[in-house]
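Journal club prep, notes for RB
We'll compare a predicted complex against what the paper describes. Inputs for the fe (ii) ion case:
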Amino acid sequence: MGEAKGRILIVDDEPSIRELVKLKLTDDGYECDLAEDAERALSMLAQTAYDGILSDVNMPGISGIEMLRRIRLTDEDVAVVIMTGAPDLASAVEAMKLGAHDHLSKPLNLDMLTLTVDRAVEKKRLIVQNREYQRNLESMVHERTKQLNDANGNLRSLFIGSIKALAQALEAKDEYTQGHSARVAEESVRIARYLSLSEPEIRSIWIAGFLHDIGKIGVKESVLNKPGKLDAMEWESVKEHPVLAARILDPIDELRDVIKMVKHHHERFDGGGYPDGLSGSAIPLGARILAVADAYDALTSKRPYREPMTPEQAIQIFKDGSGTQFDPVIVEAFLNSTQQREAGEPVPYPVFESTLMHDAKQPHLQRE
Ligand SMILES: [Fe+2]
Ligand SMILES: [Fe+2]
């Protein structure tokens, strides 16, 4: 004999009906248990899992309807079929409202009996299966979302790590620019925040600050570290660095905006800069910001051939160069945010690079 079609609890105070139903359902492949009243049925339900319950309504003690109400408090799935006499139609309706799957009229039609129980048990099975499926689906979606978030987090830190590594690669080669990239990034973010730029713009500017001189990787070390004035040829090779940077970063689609900023950070507001001689608002805003932050750090850093300027001397250069070398709006933002810098106020960094925030600060501290 194959596996049973399900386990059924038959509840009726009439022994002959219990036995008749059991005989028929057992014949048709069910395992059956018997209870003579609702109380007994409830205690059996507490012990054993049933696929279906076939119950009389009018029984001494607890009625079939009340039993169903109690069952539904703890088990919303078990298939319930009630058996009513003809005058009991109101009970049948009530039972259906309480979640009975079907009802049978007495006297029982035995073929209908099996058919009805089959249907009820199958319906219950589908409901449970569907709920399982939904639950699995939810946990699958949860799991996938978590995996994606983790992957995004990994990608983000990989991305930030790569930017940092690139900047460090340059600084390893150009000994006089130790920490320059991080300081330019910091100063640019300070200005960008003062100008209330959006968070994505600030992120791009921060990255551009780190990468603005990356093209110097392609300039000879002997030129970068030359302790005196550069000759014309050498100067031309240094001036290549913004275009070289754009070429290095070109394969990274996510850096479209950053590349424009990097490429044009040596343009002058009056059009006299390089590489393209752009002027005014034709120069990307981020590049105009970088130009000021870059110049400030260069002027106040020690070079082999000169001592660093004091901040006051540097500020005078910006006042003089406002509207010619530099965008006056950016100079003003820079000068106004200078107080924050002097007060040692930390710059609120773009959200995604919290790991780097700390490192970005270090060169600043080591500078003196
Ligand atoms: Fe540069
Ligand atoms: Fe620079």
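Talking point for the session: The chain has two domains: 7-135, 174-366.
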